[in-house]
Amino acid sequence: MKIVSWDKEHIDDAIALWNKEIGKQFPLRKDLFIQNSLEDENVCFDGSSMAFDDNESVIGFIIVKKWKESLNVPMNPEVGWVQVLIVDSKHRNQGIGTKLLEKAENHLKKSGIKTLHLGRDPWHYFPGIPNDYEQVKQWFERRGYLFKGHEYDLICQYSNHILDPLPDDKAVSFSILSLEEKANFLEFLHRCFPGRWEYEAIHYFKKGGLGREFVVAKKNERIIGFCRINDEKSPFIAQNVYWSPLFEEELGGIGPLGIDQNERKNGYGLAIVKAAVHFLRQRAVKQIVIDWTGLVEFYEKLGYKSWKSYAQYTKSL
């Protein structure tokens, strides 16, 4: 067995290993892997590694990240992420995972990382360890990772063809963002939600987004809230439709969403989700996922139920 720095020539082998081990729950497409694990500027290829057996077959790999972009968004440069760590089940209990993780942690620590999250990275796959894998959680706990709480993916399946109308509010209107509103929208996010959501919106437009993936709430023509929606025509594969190969029909996604703090407690949050459902259903989407949320009771009001769950873990280096 040997461990070497990440080798892009073996991405098909890495994808095959992923799908062999967890593909029934989380089927990985090559275009998603390229998007999230190769094209993301924040990947630390020197800290990411592959393990090979004596036959030169990939039997494990790890991908780690740190913030390396120069965008004017408040991302913590002392935070790193383990995007994925997978070892072939036939080769476990041989120290392979430990060696991959230790190499990654040492690299990130030397580069100034003080806090390491499992998942939750820019262009992430998971917001934590899927709760299906109890032994994986115990493995990381033995290596100093601390449990920080649960997050959930929710789902609702619509069987009827009746569209609920847009929320009727005399003070607020709900519409799909137009490209002409891009500057106002990004200013709204920078002011109200600086950080990850702003970052994702900036990349959305960089990748050719035209606005159709954002529902906005406006009061007196001023944006006071937003909700992201995704379908198969979106300019990149968004997080709430990552696992669409599990479904025969098109999968849609909702989230994130946010309301200006000065406009909260007026029911606009629930209303904008209803508007998001309306627009996705208008596009003939019957199955909708809301990813990475702890607000299960909030979304249950609209018929959403827990689909997948994750345990968040963090370690101080």
Question: How would you sum up this structure, described in words?
Answer:
The chain is of the alpha+beta class and 317 residues long. It has 2 domains: 2-125, Gcn5-related N-acetyltransferase (GNAT) (Aminopeptidase), CATH 3.40.630.30; 155-310, Gcn5-related N-acetyltransferase (GNAT) (Aminopeptidase, 3-Layer(aba) Sandwich). Helix content is 27%, strand content 29%. The chain has helices at residues 11-22, 30-38, 96-110, 134-141, 182-192, 196-206, 268-282, 296-300, and strands spanning 2-5, 49-52, 58-66, 79-87, 115-118, 129-130, 146-157, 173-176, 214-219, 222-230, 251-259, 287-293, 305-316. A hairpin with a 2-residue loop joins strand 9 (214-219) and strand 10. Helix 5 (182-192) packs antiparallel against helix 6 (196-206). The radius of gyration is 20 Å and the shape is globular. The mean pLDDT is 96.
Secondary structure elements and pairings:
Elements: E1 2-5, H1 11-22, H2 30-38, E2 49-52, E3 58-66, E4 79-87, H3 96-110, E5 115-118, E6 129-130, H4 134-141, E7 146-157, E8 173-176, H5 182-192, H6 196-206, E9 214-219, E10 222-230, E11 251-259, H7 268-282, E12 287-293, H8 296-300, E13 305-316
Parallel strand pairs: 4-5, 11-12
Antiparallel strand pairs: 1-2, 2-3, 3-4, 5-13, 6-13, 7-12, 7-13, 8-9, 9-10, 10-11
Helix pairs in contact: 5-6
